[in-house]
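We were asked to recover a plausible sequence for a given structure. The inputs and outputs are reproduced exactly as logged, with field labels preserved.

PROBLEM: sequence recovery
POSITIONS: 367
GIVEN STRUCTURE:
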């Protein structure tokens, strides 16, 4: 009898150990007092879950839904960024019961295109893209169990550009982008328009030269971001707008290194409020002037809530912009003067009313 009990105990221990051995790059946070049976999963794009940008913003929205709505959540980081690897992890989440799946980034287009048919009882949210077969000339196909989410990045870039220009007043600006994709391009184009608007309407004298507008080509090469930022600062650039994920993290570090030596080096953050990431020294100061934000967390939270309310916007392509407070700059900007904040609020109101229309396509560099 004792031997039997010992065997059962050992077996239970072994099963517990096996169950605890999972993938390193995945996480979950079941809510013990859950009010909902909904299980929300996320497959991350390149970079980490705490990338201070796209992945983090999406996950924070899901975490907010866990805290406030009682869902269970889980994320998985694929080993690579191919359609096959994304599809594999979408399948793993689905098989684990996480049938409401959020995917952040355009690289998921073809994986979600296939998943919405393969997992007909699943729900899919794709951010900054729409399901597409990937074939040349193919149209986007958003089926009733999917929703595509876009943001008016050009508006956010415009507002941040105005705020930064009014704050700095005179000198050269720079832009570092990650991959040259629509979302990043729109940030750049809006930023340029914001600088020009400030020059034309608020008396600032900010220039942006061709050599100071660079797309690095990835979202995870922080070393390259640091090098690009160093080159721009050495050329006399006073502030750089970084729409580049991990590449931007490298630029932020370079600016911090210079600030610690008493040099002027400012960064305009992206996607989320990056002020805390720019802190240096004793932590009382930051090199982040402001951040061009798109409320990825709020958009994700809202769609999860819609599902719980029986109002999942399936088959739709949604755009979050200034009119629904989907883009903008942080509510608090410690490095901006009251005047810069007031001017940012002024142009935001004009964008909402339609008095300012920010183009989503390329324009000429400001002189």
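RECOVERED SEQUENCE:
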């Amino acid at each position: 009898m004792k031997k039997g009990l010992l065997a059962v105990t050992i077996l239970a221990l072994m099963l517990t150990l096996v169950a605890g051995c999972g993938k390193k790059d995945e996480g979950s946070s079941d809510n013990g007092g859950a009010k909902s049976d909904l299980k929300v999963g996320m497959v991350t794009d390149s970079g980490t879950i705490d990338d201070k940008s796209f992945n983090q913003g999406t996950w924070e929205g899901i975490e907010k839904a866990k805290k406030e709505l009682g869902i269970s959540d889980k994320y998985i980081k694929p080993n690579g960024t191919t359609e096959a690897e994304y599809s594999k992890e979408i399948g793993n989440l689905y098989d684990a019961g996480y049938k409401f799946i959020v995917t952040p980034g355009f690289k998921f287009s073809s994986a979600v295109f296939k998943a919405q048919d393969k997992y007909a009882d699943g729900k899919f949210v794709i951010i900054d893209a729409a399901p597409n077969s990937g074939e040349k000339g193919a149209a986007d196909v958003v089926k009733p169990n999917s929703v595509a989410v876009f943001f008016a990045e050009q508006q956010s870039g415009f507002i941040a550009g105005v705020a930064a220009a009014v704050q700095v007043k005179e000198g050269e600006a720079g832009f570092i982008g990650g991959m040259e994709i629509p979302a990043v391009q729109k940030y750049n184009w809006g930023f340029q328009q914001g600088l020009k608007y400030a020059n034309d309407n608020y008396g600032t004298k900010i220039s942006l030269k061709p050599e100071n507008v660079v797309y690095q080509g990835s979202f995870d090469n922080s070393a390259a971001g640091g090098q690009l930022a160093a080159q721009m600062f050495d050329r006399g650039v006073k502030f750089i707008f970084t729409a580049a994920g991990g590449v931007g993290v490298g630029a932020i570090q370079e600016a911090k290194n210079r600030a610690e030596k008493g040099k002027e080096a400012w960064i305009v953050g992206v996607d989320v409020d990056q002020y805390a990431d720019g802190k240096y020294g004793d932590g009382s100061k930051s090199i982040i002037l402001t951040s061009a934000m798109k409320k990825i967390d709020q958009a994700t939270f809202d769609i999860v809530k819609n599902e719980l309310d029986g109002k999942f916007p399936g088959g739709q392509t949604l755009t979050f912009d200034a009119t629904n407070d989907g883009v903008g700059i942080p509510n608090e900007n410690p490095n901006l003067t009251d005047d810069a904040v007031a001017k940012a609020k002024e142009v935001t109101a004009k964008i909402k009313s339609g008095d300012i229309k920010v183009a989503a396509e390329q324009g000429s560099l400001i002189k």
